[in-house]
């Protein structure tokens, strides 16, 4: 556990980003990468850009929100169409999926920012990520990406607090992940499965749920909610809507995980 105060961590973050001649932030629109982008823009807006990877793995709503937030920060923003779905080793969905994916994505991003003369690419990994199974971080390290939040020893709680102090709209945004993270390891990733997951999660969002996941098990959808929202889901006016909409999407069975939502739940199947 870090003994640094948030003020000390913030100084390290600013110094680390400020040391770059120019910087591109691999920008998802989430809590972490938004803080990195906001600091980069605050230090030198003219030499900072946001780059968002766009593919069937990213929910459309998340991409739209990322562009909206980057625009509010006044930072130049570029989209990169990435090609994960063209790679059979990614589609196989092994436990190394995230490593394979990040290698592809960061390679595509580097190719784009290289034409701009940008030397440094930063991503939003934080100190808490070091405690989980995150093979994508290995890929980022191998490709020379900067992780300024890790350098500053910032946890998720630190990031939310600093984001709140800076008035960033993402300070209390629920954690997000690519749609492939809803599909158990070993189950091939398909365009149809990704579309089903996205459509199902849009149903829950429309009903006012936040901080959830819909896990895809072929014909079965397993909903992970925060336990505090279990009773809302069980109300007939919501439960019956969810069942009907999920069946329309293509799921024959709809279940709910009694343990509730937990990030990285599918890593349990590989002993992580």
Mean pLDDT: 94
Strand order of the largest sheet: 3-2-1-4
Strand-pairing-aware structural class: alpha/beta
Helix tally equals: 11
CATH architectural arrangement of the largest domain: 3-Layer(aba) Sandwich
* Overall tally of structural domains: 2
- CATH homology-level superfamily of the largest domain: HUPs
Work out the radius of gyration: 19 Å
Please state the oligomeric state of the protein chains shown. Answer: single chain
Low-pLDDT sequence parts = none
CATH fold node name of the largest domain: Rossmann fold
Helix content: 40-55%
CATH hierarchy, class of the largest domain: Alpha Beta
Helix and strand run: HEHEHEHHEHHHHEEHHE
The end-to-end distance, rounded to whole angstroms, is: 21 Å
Bulk shape: globular
Instruction: Please give the largest β-sheet.
Output: 4 strands, parallel
How much β-strand is present in the residues?
A: 5-15%
**Number of separate strands:** 7
Secondary structure elements and pairings:
Elements: H1 6-18, E1 23-26, H2 31-44, E2 48-54, H3 60-73, E3 76-81, H4 88-91, H5 97-114, E4 120-122, H6 135-142, H7 148-151, H8 156-165, H9 191-206, E5 213-217, E6 220-224, H10 230-234, H11 236-249, E7 253-256
Parallel strand pairs: 1-2, 1-4, 2-3, 6-7
Antiparallel strand pairs: 5-6
